[in-house]
Design brief:
With about 280 residues, this protein is of the alpha+beta class. About 20% of the residues lie in helices and about 30% in strands. It contains six helices and 18 strands. The strands form five sheets. A nine-stranded mixed sheet has the order 13-11-10-7-14-3-4-5-18, covered by helices on one side. The longest helix has 11 residues. It starts with a strand and ends with a strand. The relative contact order is 0.18. The C terminus is likely disordered.
Amino acid sequence: MKYYEVKEGESLIEIARIFNLGYNEIADANPGTDPFVPMPGNRVKIPTIWILPERKPSTGIVINLSEMRLYYFFKKEGRSFVKTYPVGIGDEGSETPAGFFRITHKIENPSWRVPESIRKEKPWLPPVVPPGPDNPLGSHALRLSSGSILIHGTDRPWGIGRQVSHGCIRLYPEDIVKLFYEVKIGTQVFIVREPIKIGIKEKEIYIEIHKDPISGDMNYYDEAIRMLVKKNLISYIELDRLYEVIKRKDGIPVKIGRLTEEQSPPKNKSYERAIVH
């Protein structure tokens, strides 16, 4: 966790990009701050710490729609690493689908073939938008096995951390270039929805909870209790602290308990974090 002092003329949107965060992450972490005209001199939270998703492949990509964040798991010299990037996802009515996919194509300087559904909404668009600064796909794109879903850059970086696309996953222009050259065709991609994540570090139990509009009327408290029971952790947590974290839903990992000295944490794969900024 870091803090940053707002400078004259800065918005949380610009600050988020500096620290490789999405709009949702910095706005949720600073609920009392105007995201568009924050007061110069204010200290804002920079939540650059995350609990890994429940789905952790040895290699591959996991996109958690609930937190609008992509995790790329990979191995190097026999050790496991993960890099993580904020993303923009599908808007209401055009939600990004959850499921298992693979990367089938890598495309540099993609042209955008405008779907008929979008041309009906925006008839002034041409059938094909050529590569360039005004192309919504940005400079690089990764096509998934669904055919219609891409992981790509964007000409509108303010949309990262928002539901703004027609189903595709958007990355900051600087992030898609890094991911594009790191992954291979055939890389597996898991798109999941995990508004609640639980992790253990040095016997301390943490929980991270995100506001998820698609989860509807999900009872966050009951779901968190169910997950803690399943992980055999319920006896070691403070219920009052859990309740406070659920009320905030600010996406920041918070300690809610601690294992005893005799209790060993559940076996889990160890990853060395290599956050890309």
